[in-house]
Amino acid sequence: MADDTILETRNLVKEFKGFVAVSDVNLKVQRGHIHALIGPNGAGKTTVFNLLTKFLIPTRGQILFKGQDITQEKSAQVARRGIVRSFQISATFPHLTVLENVRIGLQRQLGTSFHFWKSERSLEVLHVRALELLDTVGLREYADTITVELPYGRKRALEIATTLATEPELMLLDEPTQGMGHEDVERVTQLIKKVSANRTILMVEHNMNVVATIADRISVLQRGQVIAEGPYETVSKDPQVLEAYMGSEATELGGGHG
Are residues 161 and 185 located together in one domain of the fold? Predict the structure, then answer.
């Protein structure tokens, strides 16, 4: 059904001085899915994300969100529609506590986001919701910890909590497990699965085990073009995909550890 598509790109193109970074990309992200964007380095994944969140304007093509053309909208407008990019927008305040970071994320709902002169009591109403979000991401026991002291994987969990605080309909996760040890990767993977329960997630991810575990659908980019799409079982056996990854990464696609 067409109305199940929450985000769609039509013939999306981005050129930089004659270099085509994104070439005729047609994506359809289904509501409620975890959709992964994968591909070798330089394939255009980050450029696509930048186009979707309006850090870049497309050379040609259209972006539709819930059937409405948002191609020309600014990043703030897109965020207000409920498209929120984590790990970029939600960079945390290192010298505030974990709880204070989540409360700032929640302030948007009060309409006091930038009223830093307001008394802290006006934030008390957010306290219960902030603790609920910390429960969701397994950080309740860290509520009073100064954020800079959190271990790396837990910082990522906090970034997911501050993103969730903005009530996104579509969460864009940019390399959510990058630079993590195995234990943290496992924890964040399960967390993404958990928070996807009633929202849509589009993620760029290098770790094939993560993609294989949680992605409902995968789009593979190479040189700015989508060369394959479908569930992991299909995509991981596609000859073009295996060739794009070559050698050691091809075995990784086959289920090895990377």
Answer: no
